[in-house]
Amino acid sequence: MDRVATARADSVDRALAILQGIRSSRSPAGDPSTRTAMSRDDVLLDVSPRPAVDDARAAELAAEVYGVEGPVRELGSHQDRNFRVDGPGGRLVL
């Protein structure tokens, strides 16, 4: 395994240990039937949705916050929203 894969596996193992501790602490001490084993496959990564901002709202924000007005175009992204604003002074990224 390379260093990145090893670090990722270590992070998953730490998260799993924390989750197992939380689950164990919530289970009644005398009732083993409520305790279940967790595996690495049970750990899910939490990915936030992209912000709900469209071109029109981005143009409003550029004008309100930065005082820049001009055509707005969304740039590609997986987890966030980036926009190009073609302002009078040149292209800017929002």
Summarize the helices and strands and which ones pair or pack.
Layout: H1 3-26, H2 55-66, E1 72-75, E2 82-87, E3 90-93
Class based on secondary structure composition and strand pairing: alpha+beta
Number of helices: 2
The secondary-structure element order is: HHEEE
| Termini gap | 38 Å
Large-scale geometry: elongated
Main sheet properties: 3 strands, antiparallel
Explain what you see.
The protein is an alpha+beta fold and 94 residues long. It has two domains: 3-42; 55-93, no CATH class. Helices cover 38% and strands 15% of the residues. The protein has a three-stranded antiparallel beta sheet, covered by helices on one side. The model has no long low-confidence stretch (mean pLDDT 74).
Concise synopsis of the structure shown:
By secondary structure, the chain is an alpha+beta fold. It folds into 2 domains: 40 residues; 39 residues, no CATH class.
Short descriptors:
94 residues; alpha+beta; 2 domains; three-stranded antiparallel beta sheet; 2 helices; 3 strands; elongated
